Amino acid sequence: MELHYLSAFELANKIRNKEVSSVELTDAYINRIEKYDGQINAVVVRTFEKAREDAKIADQELQKGNVLGPLHGIPMTIKESYVMEGENTTWGIPAFRNNKAKKDGLSVKRFRDSGAHFLGKTNVPLNLADFQSYNEIYGTTNNPWNVSKTPGGSSGGSAAALAAGFSSLEAGSDIGGSIRNPAHYCGVFGHKPSHGIIPMSGHELVPNVPEVDLSVCGPLARSAKDLNIALDIMAGPIPREAKGWQLRLNECKIKNLKDFRVAIWNNDDLAPVANEISNRCDSIGEKLINLGATVSFEARPEHDKLKGEINYQLLLQSVMQSGISEEDFKKVTDMAAELKVDDFSVNALLIKGTVLSHRDWLRQNYGREQIKVSWEKFFEDWDILICPQLATTAISHDHRDFSQRMIKVDNQEQRYFQQIFWPGLAVNAHLPSTVFPTGLSEDKMPIGLQAIGAAYEDKKTIKFAELIEKEIGGFSPPSNFD
Fold this sequence. Notes:
Blueprint: H1 8-16, H2 22-40, E1 43-46, H3 48-63, E2 75-79, H4 106-113, E3 117-122, E4 134-135, E5 139-140, H5 156-163, E6 170-174, H6 180-186, E7 189-192, E8 216-221, H7 224-234, H8 239-242, E9 261-264, H9 275-291, E10 294-296, H10 305-320, H11 326-337, H12 346-354, H13 358-381, E11 384-388, E12 406-409, E13 412-415, H14 421-428, E14 433-440, E15 446-452, H15 458-472
Parallel strand pairs: 2-3, 9-10, 9-11
Antiparallel strand pairs: 1-3, 4-5, 6-8, 7-8, 7-14, 11-15, 12-13, 14-15
Helix pairs in contact: 2-3, 5-6, 7-15, 10-12, 10-13, 10-14, 11-12
């Protein structure tokens, strides 16, 4: 495989063994971005000169015998929503066009401390709130597999940069699948960690934002092993909290696929998926059976899945709509007053979640706790749940108002956001989920599936992805840009 498509850990080994210098690798990525990114528009903030300076320092330190960390000399990119000294952080919002950071945020600093340096930042949708990545400031990002389609969102630029060979490693964020959706659409790996283990500090528009319910930061990569390395770098408390507690995730003790207990959830009436994606779940299950693993196609957590989806939607909208203006909040409050208590229609959930009182939030949080208990019981019997990430492969660009958007699932129209059911399974219960590529669809687009695990068993879902990667093959590069 070409140098620019190797995994970060392979490239780090090559740098340490002096098979390639950090400067050579950095220049190779810069040249590739300059040659091809006009067609993709993934790396929208470019810090090439700083990257070259940092690469020179990395090479000089290596000559002295100093290895700066597991990513010594590695050039990477990161989602635009992370804070980087001297660069704008806008989240695609025009009002923040000149929101320049005075210092690196926590995750950027932790990657630098691990030896990495940055080529730039990658594109996002407006306010990080879409399955597509486009905004007024930076424009539209295209999928390297087919530029007429979206790479996903909100970490769409992250996944596109990896798939196109513009970067060796990435980090995104996820509240409705924003790491995993693009990973699925672009054929790379993405990990949504257990809630709270990676600080959100430094992933912010203004300083000192407290941790947000549901939302997490996490890595994207071209290999599962890279996810594990990045997780170790990103995870752990902020300095203030580190005075009192430390994070220690269990290493996965399972070393072979045959020893995993795996449940397959291939489809659901609440959010039907394309037959090809459902069948891909089944084929992975059959592969695991042939390898000797314990597999069930019927096992499910015991809680009511519809009530679980309602619970997620109310808590999600409470977060996502928290920034609306006082005028709009008053309008939605008046609309909510007209709704019946038992109205849980799509529009009603959006309205009720937007104006959710603290009293009602606490009640929904109690309901979520019962869902967490249900998942905990489920994972006493099963190590991994495999399920779809989204209903289809990457969709064509569609920039209409959300209310007008539909997707076609085997020629049946479905609400655009109906498929958020699948990423929401892990989000609402604060579970880890690793998306891994499984090959291409009939239309030559990637299909990724989720491996969901018990809370704080992040190493287990990543290990499963690493083992299945070896068995079926992992990332394969699109042919469009070579």
